[in-house]
C-alpha cells in the first residue's frame, strides 16, 4: 500500500470471537461495559466491485472492556443481501452506488414494489430490549449482542405509513424518536416517537414532490424536533427511468433547489412552528441542538455544500493516493423562530465529520463537541475537541493512524461535561492492524490502546448508542 488509508477500503473476512487484546497504557478502572460498532466490511460481491462506500456489506465489531482487559468480537451481519452475495455471488437488491444483478425488468419490478436492500451498515439500534443492525431501510436485523449472531428481523415501519426508517434515531427518557420516509404517491418524511413496548406514534408528516431532500439524521431540543431539508436529493422519476438500465440512487442524486431549510416541529403537538430557509447545504450528522432562548434555536452540525459529499465517496476514489473529497465544516446555525433566514457561523473548518457529544447533554446547552478531522487522504487523521462557544480546538493525532468517530463515556459521578473518556476504533494503516483508542476527554491525552490482531476499517457511521458502561 502506498498510503495509510487504502487498506481501510479492502475487504477483511476474518471473524474473531471474544479475543483478548493486548493493552498498552491502561483503560480506567471504572470503564466497564460493551459497545457495538457497525460499518463496511466487504467491498465486492462475486466478481462485482461495489462502487460506493455506502454499498459495502455490514460488519459488526464488539468491544468489551472490564477489569483492565479489552475483548473483541467481529462478525458480518447475515442479511439476505449478505447471504445472496456469499452463496450466489450476486448483488440481490440495488445498493446506493451499485445496481442489482439481473435483468432490467427485474430491477424495475424491484423499484416499483419497494424491494429495498437489507444490508444494515449504518448503526445499531436498541429497541424494546433487543438490538438491531440498521440502515435506511424497512428492515432491522436482530443481533445477539453477546455473539453478534443474526437472530431475526423486524419491520421497523410497522404502524407507520412509510417505506423505510432512517438509521439515526434519538433516545430520550426511554422514548425513541425517529424519521420514516414514504416514497409512494407523495414523497414524505414522518417524524414518529415510540414508547417502550408500544407501536410508533406519527407526529408530523412533511410532504415533498418527486425530488425529496436527502435526510440522514435530525436534531432534538427540549421542545422541538428539527428536520433538515437539504438542497440535494434523489430525483425519483429519473431514478425510475434509469433503473432498468443499471442506474443507481447516486446517478439520480443532485441539487434540488438553490436553498435549504430547517423544519421546526413542536415535540408535543407536532405543529410546524417554523420553516426557516438557509443557504444550500447537505448535512449527514448533527452534533447537538438547543433552545438558546424563546426566539432562537442553535443547531450545530457538519455541513457540506456540494453533492460530491454523496457522489464523491466512490471506493476507487477513496482508495487512491490523491483522493478528491468534499469538505465538511462544523457549522452553527441560529434558527429564528419568529421568521427570517438561518444565520450561519463556521465553528471549525474541515474536513471533519462524525460530530459527537456527551449525549447526556443532547438537546441542551452544551460546551464540547468531538470530531474526526482529516489532514490528508480519505480517512480521518485526528480527533478534535471543540469548545463550541469559543470556539477553540484541541487535537490528538498520530501519523498513520486513522481514528473513527469518538464516543464519549462519562466518568462515574462526573462533575463536568467533559469528565470522562473518548473511545475510538482506529485503523493503524502503517502496521496493517486496528486499535481501540482511549483518550482522556478533558485533556485529549491518550490513556491506553488495545491492538486488534487484524485490521478493519474505521466505520463510516455512528456507533450504537446502546453502550452500557
Ligand atoms: Fe450517519
Distance between the termini: 37 Å
- What oligomeric assembly is this protein in? single chain
Q: What general outline do the C-alpha atoms trace?
A: globular
Query: What is bound: which ligands?
Result: fe (ii) ion
Number of H/I helices: 5
Number of strands: 34
Task: Describe it.
The structure is a single chain. By secondary structure, this protein is mainly β. It has a single domain (6-452), classed as Methylamine Dehydrogenase, Chain H (7 Propeller), CATH 2.130.10. It is 7% helix and 44% strand. The protein has 5 helices and 34 strands. The protein has helices at residues 80-87, 104-112, 236-242, 308-311, 315-319, and strands spanning 19-25, 33-42, 44-45, 48-49, 57-66, 69-76, 123-127, 130-134, 139-143, 150-155, 164-165, 170-172, 175-183, 187-194, 201-208, 219-220, 224-229, 232-234, 253-255, 260-266, 272-278, 282-291, 296-304, 329-336, 343-348, 352-356, 368-373, 382-387, 392-397, 401-403, 407-410, 420-428, 433-440, 446-452. The strands form 8 sheets. Strands 1, 2, 5, 6, 30, 31, 32, 33 and 34 form a 9-stranded antiparallel sheet that branches. Strands 11, 12, 13, 14 and 15 form a 5-stranded antiparallel sheet that branches. The longest helix has 9 residues, at 104-112. Fe (ii) ion (FE2) is lined by residues 122, 168, 216, 284-285, 461-462.
Amino acid at each position: 500500500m502506498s498510503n495509510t488509508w487504502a487498506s481501510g477500503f479492502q475487504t477483511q473476512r476474518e471473524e474473531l470471537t471474544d479475543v483478548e487484546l493486548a493493552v498498552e497504557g491502561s483503560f480506567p478502572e471504572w470503564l466497564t461495559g460493551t459497545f457495538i460498532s457497525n460499518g463496511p466490511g466487504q467491498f465486492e460481491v462475486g466478481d462485482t466491485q461495489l462502487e460506493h462506500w455506502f454499498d459495502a456489506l455490514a460488519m459488526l465489531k464488539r468491544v468489551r472492556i472490564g477489569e483492565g482487559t479489552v475483548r473483541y468480537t467481529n462478525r458480518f451481519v447475515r442479511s439476505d443481501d449478505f447471504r445472496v452475495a456469499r452463496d450466489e455471488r450476486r448483488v440481490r437488491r440495488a445498493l446506493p452506488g451499485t445496481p442489482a444483478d439481473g435483468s432490467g425488468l427485474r430491477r424495475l419490478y424491484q423499484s416499483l414494489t419497494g424491494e429495498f436492500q437489507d444490508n444494515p451498515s449504518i448503526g445499531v439500534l436498541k429497541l424494546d430490549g433487543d438490538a438491531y443492525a440498521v440502515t435506511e431501510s424497512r428492515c432491522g436485523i436482530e443481533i445477539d449482542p453477546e455473539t453478534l449472531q443474526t437472530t431475526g428481523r423486524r419491520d421497523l415501519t410497522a404502524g407507520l405509513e412509510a417505506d423505510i426508517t432512517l438509521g439515526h434515531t434519538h433516545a430520550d427518557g426511554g422514548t425513541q424518536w425517529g424519521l420514516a420516509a414514504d416514497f409512494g404517491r407523495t414523497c414524505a418524511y414522518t417524524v414518529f416517537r415510540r414508547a417502550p413496548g408500544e407501536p410508533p406514534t406519527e407526529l408530523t408528516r412533511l410532504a415533498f414532490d418527486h425530488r425529496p431532500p436527502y435526510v440522514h439524521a435530525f436534531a432534538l431540543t427540549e421542545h422541538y424536533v428539527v428536520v433538515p431539508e437539504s438542497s440535494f436529493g434523489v430525483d425519483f422519476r429519473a431514478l425510475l427511468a434509469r433503473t432498468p438500465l443499471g442506474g443507481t440512487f447516486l446517478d439520480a442524486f443532485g441539487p434540488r433547489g438553490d436553498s435549504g431549510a430547517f423544519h421546526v416541529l413542536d415535540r408535543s403537538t407536532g405543529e410546524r412552528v417554523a420553516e426557516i430557509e438557509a443557504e444550500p447545504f447537505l448535512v449527514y450528522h448533527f452534533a447537538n441542538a438547543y433552545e438558546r432562548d424563546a426566539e432562537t434555536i442553535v443547531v450545530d452540525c457538519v455541513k457540506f455544500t456540494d453533492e460530491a459529499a454523496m457522489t464523491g465517496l466512490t471506493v476507487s476514489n477513496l482508495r487512491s493516493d490523491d483522493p478528491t473529497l468534499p469538505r465538511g465544516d462544523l457549522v452553527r446555525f441560529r434558527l429564528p423562530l419568529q421568521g427570517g433566514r438561518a444565520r450561519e457561523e463556521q465553528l471549525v473548518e474541515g474536513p471533519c465529520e462524525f460530530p459527537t457529544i456527551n449525549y447526556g447533554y443532547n438537546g441542551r446547552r452544551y460546551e464540547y463537541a468531538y470530531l474526526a478531522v482529516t489532514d490528508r487522504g480519505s480517512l480521518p487523521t485526528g480527533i478534535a475537541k471543540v469548545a463550541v462557544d469559543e470556539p477553540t480546538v484541541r487535537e490528538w493525532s498520530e501519523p498513520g493512524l486513522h481514528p473513527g468517530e469518538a464516543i464519549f463515556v462519562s466518568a462515574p459521578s462526573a462533575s463536568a461535561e467533559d469528565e470522562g473518556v473518548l473511545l475510538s476504533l482506529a485503523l493503524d494503516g502503517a502496521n496493517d492492524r486496528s486499535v481501540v483508542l482511549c483518550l482522556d476527554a478533558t485533556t485529549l491525552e491518550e490513556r491506553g490502546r488495545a491492538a486488534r490482531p487484524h485490521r478493519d476499517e474505521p466505520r463510516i457511521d455512528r456507533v450504537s448508542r446502546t453502550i452500557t458502561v
